[in-house]
Amino acid sequence: MSKRFIFVSVVFLAALVWLSMPEFKEKDDGKTTITVWESLGGPDVFIKQAGEAYSRLHPDVKIKFVNVELGDAVSQVALDAPAGVGPDIFAAPHDKLGELYNMGLVFAVENPDEVKAAVLDSCSKAVSYKGTMYGYPVSAETYALFYNKDYISEEEIPLKWSGLVNWCRDFNAKNPGKYGFMMDVGQGYYTITFASKNGNRLFGKDGTDSEHTNLNNTDAVLGMSFFQGMRKAMLDVPSADLSTATCDDSFRSGKVAMYITGLWNVKSFEEAGINFGVAALPALPGEDTPSPSFSGTRAMYVSAFSNHEKIAADFAKFLISPEMQKLRFEITGALPAIDVTVESPYIAGFLKQLDYSFPMPSIDRMSSFWASMDSASKNIWEGADVQTELNACDHIIMSN
After folding, report:
1. What's the pTM?
2. For residues 39 and 69, what is the distance between their CA atoms, to the nearest angstrom?
């Protein structure tokens, strides 16, 4: 029995239950309740405050927050929504859109031209699938080059990876026990930048080519070969000792001059008293612009099983207004999804890098990318043959 048959059967049975139930969105004192699933740790506070602001404008609507963490949302929506106990709106990363679309779990965006005009271009592309926009972007993210100003000034930041290697070689020699540069070398999320040489893009220019990963072509091999050479040149540390947690701690404790990470680490580094700045990534060999990075978009999706689609869509659109985007930044520190001015000395570096980023693909094959690219990256760092590892990575992804 196929997985698709089983899923359709489950959804059909759940739908029968749902049809036999009364309207699952309660009304309190005549108010329409819009249920929103979001994570704790900041996004929850934002949704509650945004909900209060929306209700002041629309007294007949109540926004109800329910804690469902980002990583659990898609699977939980698939189970709960057809049975009539799911959300009206839920948060999910944009690379899950392919799954949401194929399972029929989300409505298309209301007034897509208006939303597209309001948000950053990378965010607009990220929440679109097969030419249709399905999500309302509430934050953007990418990684960039953090640098410790006690070791290197903004003017000294190398504009090319080759220059960074040379600078680090000299720094390491003069500062035993410290490193000029560090990154999690076993995360495909970061190492994809090297496989993106000469405009090479995972799953093609638009991230929708399910027949070609582009991970084992000439450009990817050249870029990942340079990545491999960085170990001997400036960071002779095993991949097992370069986990994200270890790298975070190393930069936080002042042992590293430059480090690739994201906006999510700003508060931690500030609290540690590190005097740091943020710049765009150096250019790959033979290029003159910052090397590409993955960009991610956190979006709010209107459930296809919502009984209040129009109101839910209106609230989701309200979340991308300038006032709400500023509020979300103040609460969460996440990069706004629209072009709005916020108070932070680090935003300029991220915005510059975002200009050279590309959205993580959202096609189904993307689910097989992470583990296989992580493995290939670790093996390549440890000295394995680059072409062989990327061929294996490509084979795993295309076999699923």
Report:
1. 0.82
2. 4
